Amino acid sequence: MEIQSLKKRVRYLLSFFIVALVVSGITAVPLKWEIDFLQSAMGRGTWVVSLFPALGDWIAFVHQGITETEQ
């Protein structure tokens, strides 16, 4: 009986990880739109930069990289 229980747990865990991978793949699709939004909300020229200047620089760097890669 213990082997059957272990097989059931493994199936549930595998199913969970498959679903998690699918969800993470779906969220990567609108990456350009998301980084544009993040740049306008927290990038250079916003109030967030006055509190966390390194964060604004990092967001601008990532935004530039994704924009150049898309082109």
SSE layout and pairings?
Layout: H1 2-28, H2 31-42, H3 47-51, H4 53-70
- How confident overall, as mean pLDDT? 89
Number of domains: 1
Order of helices and strands: HHHH
Low-confidence stretches: none
Question: TL;DR?
Answer:
The chain is mostly helical. The chain is built from four helices and no strands. The N and C termini lie far apart (58 Å).
Question: What does this protein structure show overall?
Answer:
The protein is mainly alpha-helical. The chain has one domain. It has 4 helices and no strands. The chain has helices at residues 2-28, 31-42, 47-51, 53-70. Helix 2 runs antiparallel to helix 4. The longest helix is centred in the N-terminal third of the chain and has 27 residues, at 2-28. It starts with a helix and ends with a helix. 6% of the residues are buried. The mean pLDDT is 89.
Which keywords apply here?
mainly alpha; 4 helices; 71 residues
